[in-house]
Amino acid sequence: MASRGGPRATGTDGSDFQHRERVASHYQMSVTLKSEIKKLIYTHVCIWLLLLAQMCVGHLKLLSHDQVAMPYQWEYPYLLSILPSLLGLLSFPRNNISYLVLSMISTGLFSVAPLIYGAMEMFPMAQQLYRHGKAYRFIFGFSAVSVMYLVVVVAAQVHGWQLYYSKKLLDSWFTSTQEKKKK
Questions:
Q1: Angle, vertex CA 111, rays to CA 110 and CA 115, nearest 5
Q2: For the whole model, what pTM was predicted?
Q3: Nearest CA-CA partner of 39 in 2, 92, 80, 77
Q4: What's the pLDDT at 75?
Q5: Which residues, given as ranges, of the chain have pLDDT below 50?
Q6: From the centroid of its chain, how far is CA 179?
Q7: Which residues pair with 143 in a beta bridge?
Q8: Is residue 167 part of a domain?
Q9: Which domain holds residue 63?
Q10: Within 13 Å, how many C-alpha atoms sit on residue 52's CB side?
Q11: 134: phi > 0 → left, psi -120 to 50 → alpha, else beta; which?
Q12: Which of 62, 64, 78, 89 meets the CB 3.0–4.6 Å disulfide criterion with 114?
């Protein structure tokens, strides 16, 4: 190997040491997974803000109930779903395993559980809409149950992927922790 400005070793141009300059795969995976989880968290925040806006408009009666329906019961506990996302973001700077685990557990409790309850709560109204064509709640001219089922489907996918990537990130962090203990 050669120094910065000095002579090079005979028979080399210095490029034969590139294999030593690679980043370990679990570190690369950690960076990639953090990026994906951040995208999902930002998507979740957008969904959360839309639900919060609908709740504020409904309760403060900023628009008539013909335009924006009152929120369903599942939307209230879903507002707590912002907490797991914040815990997830807090776990990233120092690879804090305990924050990530808390984020995953609370995602199930505050995000996935209200979505399941919401799907069950809205099911009779969805049946009535599709069997008889009657809707009693509307959001800007669309049936509220259709709009909210769309929100539930998108949010369930966001939280499902968030849990999946968080589990893979947790595995990646455990790999790096185990390698440090071996040394």
A1: 115
A2: 0.80
A3: 92
A4: 94
A5: 1-2
A6: 28
A7: 138
A8: yes
A9: 40-182
A10: 10
A11: beta
A12: 78
State residue 6's pLDDT score. 63
E strands in the chain = 138-139, 142-143
Q: Is 20 a member of any domain?
A: no
Would you say residue 97 lies in a domain? yes
Say which residues have a Cβ less than 8 Å from residue 8's Cβ, sequence separation at least 6: 1, 2, 14
CB proximity list for 70: less than 8 A, separation 6 or greater: 58, 59, 137
d(CA 63, CA 151): 21
Token pair belonging to 61: 């009666």
Q: Copy the structure tokens of residue 146.
A: 């259709």
Q: How far apart are CA 28 and CA 48, in angstroms?
A: 30
Angle formed by the axes of helices 82-91 and 25-60, to 10°?
150
How many whole angstroms from its chain centre is CA 31?
16
Interatomic CA distance for residues 123 and 119, integer angstroms: 6
Count up the domains in the chain and report the number.
1
pLDDT given at position 135? 84
User: Has residue 118 been placed in a domain?
Assistant: yes
**Orientation of helix 97-107 relative to helix 144-182, angle to 10°:** 160
